[in-house]
């Protein structure tokens, strides 16, 4: 019986925790990839007519890349908290595993949403800046608010990752 569950610590709990790691990494990097690709298309289109503005307008790509770092940070923190079974008994609780799943989902899905926002704003913004350079500050402000969505997910994920229940 000790192979299955001990006081709220089922054998499947690490699977749920690792699923949280996967959510954080995959979805945050998916948002970063989308944001990079979409903003990169705008930079390429704008750069044909105004190549001198390419380096100035690379900011959306950098901001999208930060979202992947958020996912990496949460994944490493969660991985460090997941413990392997000892002598056939799981010491990683269901409560902790679901807290880690929620942390991964908070970081990953907010990173995905932020990446989509950064990509769309970056694409339209750099094309608009190519036509009217006075729009640059407005584009940066909108990008900052879009990046904040991913930061909110990171903060919530860090708080959730600290919620634990230890099996004795």
Question: Can you put this structure into words, describing what you see?
Answer:
This protein has a two-stranded antiparallel ribbon. It has four helices and two strands. It is mainly α. It has a single domain (5-161), classed as Four Helix Bundle (Hemerythrin (Met), subunit A). α2 packs antiparallel against α3 (94-131) and α3 (94-131) runs antiparallel to α4. The two termini are 16 Å apart. The protein is elongated, with a radius of gyration of 20 Å.
Secondary structure layout plus pairing:
Blueprint: E1 5-6, E2 9-10, H1 13-49, H2 59-81, H3 94-131, H4 136-161
Main location: membrane
Subcellular location: Membrane; Vacuole membrane
InterPro entries: ATPase_proteolipid_c-like_dom, ATPase_proteolipid_csu, ATPase_proteolipid_su_C_euk, F/V-ATP_Csub_sf
């Amino acid at each position: 019986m000790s192979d299955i569950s001990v006081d709220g610590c089922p054998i499947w709990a690490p699977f749920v925790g690792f699923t949280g790691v996967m959510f954080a990494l995959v979805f945050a990097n998916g948002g970063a990839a989308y944001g990079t690709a979409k903003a990169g298309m705008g930079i390429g289109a704008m750069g044909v007519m105004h190549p001198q503005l390419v380096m100035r307008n690379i900011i959306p790509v950098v901001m999208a890349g930060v979202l992947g770092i958020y996912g990496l940070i949460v994944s490493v923190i969660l991985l460090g908290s997941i413990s392997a079974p000892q002598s056939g008994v799981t010491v990683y609780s269901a409560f902790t595993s679901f807290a880690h799943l929620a942390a991964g989902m908070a970081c990953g899905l907010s990173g995905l949403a932020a990446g989509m926002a950064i990509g769309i704003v970056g694409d339209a913004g750099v094309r608009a800046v190519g036509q009217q350079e006075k729009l640059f500050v407005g584009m940066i402000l909108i990008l900052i608010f879009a990046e904040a969505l991913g930061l909110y997910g990171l903060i919530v994920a860090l708080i959730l990752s600290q919620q634990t229940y230890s099996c004795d």
